[in-house]
Every structure is written in C-alpha cells, then in structure tokens.
Amino acid sequence: MRLERIGPNRWRLQGTKSGVAEAVVYLSPKLRQSLEEEEALQQLAHAATLPGVVSPVVGMPDLHTGFGLPIGGVMATRIEDGIISAGAVGMDINCGVRLVTTGLLAREVPRAILEQLLAAILKRVPTGIGKKSRHLDLRHGFLEEVALRGAAAMVAKGFGYQEDLNRIEEGGCLAGARLAAVSREAVARADQLATLGGGNHFIELSVVDEVYAPETARAWGIMPGELTVLIHTGSRGFGHQICTDYSKLMQQAAKRYGIHLPTAGLACAPIGSAEGQDYLAAMACACNFAFANRQLITADVREAFLEVLGPHRTLRDALGPRPLPLLYDVAHNIAKEEEHGGRCLLVHRKGATRALPPGHPANPQEYRQTGHPAIIPGSMGTASYVVVGTPATAETYHSVNHGAGRVLSRAAARKTISREEFEQSMGDVLVTCPDYRQLLDEAPSAYKDVEEVVETLAAIGLTRKVLRLRPLAVIKGEGGEG
Prior knowledge:
- The structure is a single chain.
- The protein is α+β, with helices and mostly antiparallel strands.
- It has a single domain, classed as tRNA-splicing ligase RtcB, CATH 3.90.1860.10.
- Helices cover 30% and strands 24% of the residues.
- It is built from 13 helices and 19 strands.
- It has helices spanning 29-34, 38-47, 111-124, 143-149, 151-156, 184-188, 214-220, 236-256, 274-309, 313-319, 410-416, 419-426, 450-458, and strands spanning 2-7, 10-14, 23-26, 57-64, 71-78, 83-85, 96-105, 202-211, 226-233, 268-270, 326-331, 333-340, 343-350, 352-354, 374-376, 384-389, 399-401, 430-431, 463-476.
- A hairpin with a 2-residue loop joins strand 12 (333-340) and strand 13.
- Helix 4 (143-149) crosses helix 9 and helix 8 runs antiparallel to helix 9 (274-309).
- The two termini are 32 Å apart.
C-alpha cells in the first residue's frame, strides 16, 4: 500500500479500487517515516470496500494492526444502506478511560502514601484476566439493570454521585440495549464488574505537570500540580464474548445478504437487518456494562482514598465533601448513530475517541463552551494528555486518537525488551506487579512516542492540548486483554 501526501500530516491511501471509499491516515513526517504497518493500511483499504461506507475511512496517528478494522480506525456507514461490523468496533466493547480529580497537590502526597493508596485500591479492584468481582451482590441477578442503565444503575445503588452521569459519554448509558440479544455464554461472563483486566488496562495516579490552556483548565476545576486518577478498562469478558458471538454470526449473515467480505475480521450485516439490529442491542449492553464497570471502580478508588487519607487530616480535608469528582469518561471501542455533514451515519470508532468541539450541541451542558475533555492515555511510564477537539475534527467524524499505539507486538516486546531497558524507561514510577517479565509487553518502548502522536493532530489544528499528566504510580493486571 502506498501513501500519498495530501496536506500537512495527512496522507491518502493509494491502491484502493475505484468506486470505493477513500482512506486517509493522519501521520507526522516522523511517524510516516517509521510506519511499518502494511497490514493496518490493508485493513483500512478493506474497510473502504464494505457496502455503504462513507469517504473517508480514517486512520489515526496511533494506527496499528487489529482484528478487522485496525486499532486507530474510524469508519462511518450510511444508515439507510450501510453495514455494522462487530470487528470494526472491537473485542473489548467500550474499552474507555476516565479521569478523576482529587483536589490534592501531588507534591503534598508522600511516596509512602502513594504506596498505601495502591495497596488499598488493589484490595478492592481485582486485576488480571478472568478475575471476578469482589462485590458479591453484583455478580448475579443485577445484569439486566446494568445492561439497560449503565452507570446510572451503579449511582442508584450508591456507587457515585448523580453529577457523575453528566460527565460520561452518552450520560453513561447507550440507548437501545436489549439483553435478549446477548448469548448465554456472554451472560455467564458478566460477573466481572469492578475488575480491571489485563493487557493495556490500568489505574494510574498522575500529576498535572503541564497546563497548555489555563482558561479551559480553570473552567474544568483543574489546577497545575494536581494529583489525578486515570482508570482504563472496558466490558471485560462480557463484551469480548459478544464480539466473538456476533463476528461468527455476521460471517454467515454476510453470505445470505450477498456481501463480499475482504477478511473474516470485517464480518458484517446490514444495519437494518435482524442480525445488525441484534448486534447493536447486544453492543449497547456491553457498552453499558463497561460504563458501570468504570463507575464501580471509581467508587472503590474513592473509598480507598478515604481509608488511606483518613488519619491525615490536612489531606482528608482537601478532598472536600464529595471526594474525587469525575472530570470525564470517554469510550474508544464503540459504534454510534451520529449526524455528520447533515447526514445520519453509524460511526465505528475502534481505538479512537470522540472529541466534540466547543459549541457542539452533543457536548454535555457543562462542557458546551469548552468542548468536552478527550483523554489520551500514554503507555505505562509515559505521559498522558487531555485535549479538546476543534471544528476541524469534522473531517475525522469528530474523532481523535485514543493513545500512543503499539510499535511492537506483545510477543516481540517480551522477546526484545530487557529488564534494564524496562526499569530505565519506568524511572521512579511505582508499579504494583512484582515480576517485571509480566509487564514487558506494556513497556513504554513497545509503544509509539505519545508526544509525537498527540502533536500530529494538534499541529494541524484538529485538537487543542489542555493538560499533560505524568505518571506517579500504576496498577496493571497480568495477562493479555480481557
């Protein structure tokens, strides 16, 4: 596949057949020079051939190979004659990230207390693949409420504040969920609320070490040097099973509807078909499960802070009467019906985050003037960013990258990254895992340079940087995704 430069940090993918959608990739010259993602580019080209796909299919600066659509891919399809693809949403449905503030200055929180906070969070939030919720009363019998109401189901049970719901994409509940569209196998894996999982999922204590847009930061109530908490996880085994189930069903459905599939990973069905509507209903259940999962983890983190800081009156008082307010929660594996350019489209974002500009009517009311925060976590040991979209994001369906993006596969990272390289890259960041070998596939050198990735869109005016967060302490789970 060949890329043709069509503007600053913009490249058109050549070699696609005439009559299909174009594919556009956003890369800085440095990222373009180092790009070794022939398979990811081929996946974009394949997506462009599907029925009802609108130009362009978009590749983000963190683009890398995925299942079906590449991670860092955005694909929009027409509602009236387009398709929905489970693989273009991803295995971890509504994998997403939320940023919680504390009101504490990081310099006033000693390292010993950070260690206590990590221990108190780990006591409450299981990590690693296959782990079950420690909230025994939520393991069974509560799934339908979670699937239909999302984060609101958690708030109703006392796990959070009502105002949290105003600071979550879709208010923490994607409409159209129907549990009957979910298989028994997926329901059996729905006992993982308030669990982190493995892979790139994490809980991170960070410090706001740079503020690029002081007025916006003040409007959000963020101060320089503040201690913050990032929570990155998704729908766990529940969503993974839903994607697995519907990828198989859609392979069969595509044959019945006469749809040519370029790859099995892009198995799809017409949006209006029974299979398409069932998947959208099941996907909404998984989205809501993930919103509820992050909401419950947030409640556990709040409780951990209160426990640890209780004996430290100055720090406890600084938390205020409603500790650890949520700044925002965004999804980055999701498909949603949205209006773009006067047309109603189904936008698949896989490893991409929505970033609505100031004034956009779909912003939550309190972010209408600034644009909502779009959170871009870096790799373990490197910085994360909070940005806002500008009106120019209309060209990407109001989407931005969701992270740094891998440069090494998990297997390659485990083979090539040494202990010395890993420890040097982590510096003085506290990490919970006792065996560094279990984290090599998440080492900073397995990822692209997040500074370069974020600057790719900022330099051409698609985003405006607001905050830079530097990690202080990280909780990771063992094992792969899920």
